[in-house]
Specification:
The chain is α/β, with parallel strands linked by helices. Helices cover about 40% and strands about 15% of the residues.
Length: about 200
């Protein structure tokens, strides 16, 4: 099996914070080059927010999880039990692989033991390399849709509903393009000696 085929069995994951009053003041964001870039207003102060976990593969997305408060390893494992395990084989096949960043609760001894007990193969992932993860591109497109035309939200529930609408309207072709970009992403990281791609 070659690496292009291997990427088809990977479930890429990440967390992202969404604010009621728009995205955090980004210096840049990923957008579809066929569409005009949008201007987002930087947040001045306070406001509510939601922390969201999601994962996707070549074959589709998991459900998303809305995380409450500061997470610990046990919280992460409970979330994966509900949000990841039911989707592993469905989205990645019999030999699916889980990709995550190296956040401390993701790689703690208890979480790694949980992965072993649940027979989840975890991909080794380089530290400090968010631009390698195609979830960053997915979050960029999702945020563009959630905050389209400068949209802001009065309540956390309104924001949650829009995030869910945007998540479940992601096009399969977009997900497939992101996964198929992995060989080029890895090549670029190697070519740039680990620098930002």
């Amino acid at each position: 099996m070659n690496w292009t085929d291997e990427w088809l069995s990977v479930l890429f994951s990440d967390e992202k914070k969404f604010n009621l009053d728009g995205p955090d003041g980004w210096a840049y964001y990923w957008h579809d080059i066929r569409k005009e870039p949008q201007t987002f207003f930087s947040r001045q102060q306070g406001g509510g927010s939601l922390m969201v976990w999601g994962a996707f593969s070549y074959n589709g997305t998991t459900d998303i999880a809305f995380l409450k408060g500061r997470q610990c390893s046990d919280d992460y494992q409970k979330m994966l039990e509900v949000q990841l395990l039911p989707f592993g084989k469905l989205l990645g096949g019999d030999e699916w692989i889980y990709q995550q960043d190296n956040c401390s609760i993701h790689v703690s001894n208890s979480t790694m033991q949980w992965f072993r007990q649940n027979q989840v193969t975890v991909m080794d992932w380089p530290a400090l390399s968010p631009d390698l993860n195609p979830m960053e591109n997915l979050w960029g497109i999702l945020a563009r849709d959630v905050y389209a035309n400068g949209r802001q939200f009065a309540t956390v529930q309104d924001l949650k509903l829009q995030i869910e609408r945007s998540w479940f309207s992601l096009k399969p072709e977009f997900l497939q393009t992101l996964v198929l970009s992995m060989p080029d992403r890895v090549f670029e990281v190697i070519r740039k000696n680990g620098s930002k791609i």
